[in-house]
């Protein structure tokens, strides 16, 4: 599965990077985000709510993102 | 001020004048905050008001409960307790209690009147329908004139919240017989009485003025706050506004913009002559995101916190909206 590695990047870069990658995915397709910034989890959840996508937390630094929004 | 320099505890004539001024300041503060002067204690460090309001009634406490959006002073107090309980909040920032909540006479609960970051006002009377036995320490350090609920044990205030000076905190004590000075002490004092008398006088005068202005300005500021929120959500895509505008302090708005650095927005606004605050990690000393925004599920990056002071005009606000719109669109292109 494709990964976006944002380890060491500060907010909001992980969210900017994952949003660009998700825009290239097919509906229902998954991508993994690796990030260790403390703002990643709350911001990823807020981003998913605002954009209509889905996030599953796999560990403190690994997040599964699923494209659910067509726009 | 020129008569309030002496130590009010001494016997000289100057000290008697200082005592008189202190008593009048206390009476004024008590009247405007809705308390009896005998029930007010003053501390010379406003951040300590929260600590004293909790620690002064903590004797015999088995469980300390607080919310995920409390001030850091409350979290610091919780860190000194055995197994403190942190309650989550919903998307609007309202504290969620389990059913039934822990509610015994040995339970101490910290409750905010309103949140300083998002303005969210807690439905205190509703909360107290399920907390009928616990000791209640109210944090009114950002909302001095909210209505007091029907039952409380202590209330913490900060003179800065009514545009008074830094360095004066107040604690209202419902039942002085249940109060214990939490610091080592020899005399009967409830708190260390090492506050500055001139600052206390300034705090009392500031509150008198602030209450008059607040009565005149409250509704106008509420309308400006609505205009700010509506304008930004209409003009800027992907913005996340914290809290419930219908149950918030009208002068505080917390708004986050997706894909933008909060610190960069602050810099751009500063160049345009607007001074706002941010809860984003990139603008915090410890690089941690705002625990309040995170607990509410609000976007923590690209955050700005706008405070509308008395006297702000609609043209100022529209200028701010224009400046924010330009800053966000410019930063998103970079």
Automatic annotation (TrEMBL), chain A:
SUPFAM superfamilies assigned to the protein according to its UniProt record, in alphabetical order: SirA-like
Boundaries of every UPF0033 domain copy: 4-28
Matching InterPro entries: TusA-like (IPR001455), TusA-like_sf (IPR036868)
CDD domains: SirA_YedF_YeeD
PROSITE patterns: UPF0033 (PS01148)
Gene3D superfamilies, A to Z: TusA-like domain
Family (UniProt): Belongs to the sulfur carrier protein TusA family.
The protein's name in its UniProt record: Unannotated protein
Organism: freshwater metagenome
Automatic annotation (TrEMBL), chain B:
InterPro entries linked: Aminotrans_V_dom, PyrdxlP-dep_Trfase, PyrdxlP-dep_Trfase_major, PyrdxlP-dep_Trfase_small
Entry's family note: Belongs to the class-V pyridoxal-phosphate-dependent aminotransferase family. NifS/IscS subfamily.
Co-factor requirement: pyridoxal 5'-phosphate
Pfam family, one: Aminotran_5
Domain Aminotransferase class V residue range list: 103-317
Database matches in SUPFAM superfamilies: PLP-dependent transferases
Name this polypeptide is given: Unannotated protein
